[in-house]
Fold this protein.
Amino acid sequence: MKPQSKKTYMSKRAVVLGGEEKKARDLMQKIATVRKEKETKRKTKKDVKFKDRLKEIAKREEAKKEKQKERKKEYFSKSGNKRALSASEDNHNAFGKRQHR
């Protein structure tokens, strides 16, 4: 195969950057890199805060359930004592009134 005689489109359009253009492109690239790093850092910090918040919410829910359980336990223990007292007084009314036929 013999070498290409005509210049290609890309070789015609190739631009060699001068000193100022090179510096400007380098600066823009550095700015973009810094911005990207800041954004990544911000996202990771946000994720950590979100996970902490989820843990806090789960902790609160657990405490809430525990309190509710205690309240239920207290309520039923009190009402159970009353039932036991009423059962000892009248055995036939211990489980509610039922009419015998």
User: Anything to note?
Assistant: The CA atoms of residues 37 and 43 lie 10 Å apart.
